[in-house]
Amino acid sequence: MRNAKLYETHVNTSNLETAVEFYKRLGLELAHLIEERRVAFFWLGDPGIKEQMLGVWEVPEEEFFRSHFAFYVSLEELLKVPGFLGARGISVVSSFGLDETEPVVHPWMPAAAYYFKDPNGNSLEYLALIDGKPRPDMHVVHLSEWEKLSKKADNG
Q1: Which candidate, 74, 84, 79, places its Cα nearest to that of 131?
Q2: Are residues 47 and 71 in the same domain?
Q3: Total structural domains in the chain?
Q4: The last residue of a domain, from among 44, 65, 86
Q5: pTM given for the model
Q6: Residue 150 sits in which domain range?
């Protein structure tokens, strides 16, 4: 069904307690912990609405693989991400060969993003859709470069 929404996603960890502490620092609410299965579930967004969930599963080291997912935020919220993460001892990481001094833009969407990692190296992202015509011909650029190119395109 095309109009379905993603309800939950899952990531693996090699240490459930460390992962639970990390995702709590991001402000996620622990919804349910099943100790005997070594899994924790977190509500994303408003826990009263219960629209989105993250499952974190502890697996043996030989079964662990890194994965990626993105949190959707507004552009205003995205610009606060370095301070938000920094206050929690989490670093924004460089991505696509660009430094982490400002968000990167995926021109084909377009969307701006900051990337960071959980304690197991899973790639996480805060992402905001932004104004502008999609440019699938362009490589990833910093937000300031995107804004310059968008302004130039609008003027002619």
Answers
A1: 74
A2: no
A3: 2
A4: 65
A5: 0.93
A6: 67-156
The total number of residues shown for the chain amounts to: 156
> Which CATH number do you get for residue 46?
3.10.180.10
CB atoms within 10 A of CB 70: 15
149's enclosing H/E stretch is helix 143-155
Tell me, yes or no, whether 88 and 135 share the same domain. yes
- pLDDT range class, residue 84, cuts 50, 70, 90: very high
Which DSSP helix (H) or strand (E) runs through 148?
helix 143-155
- Burial zone of 1 (CB within 10 Å; 0-12 exposed, 13-18 middle, 19+ buried): exposed
CA distances from 119 to 16, 24, 95 (A): 10, 13, 18
Q: What is the pLDDT of residue 156?
A: 58
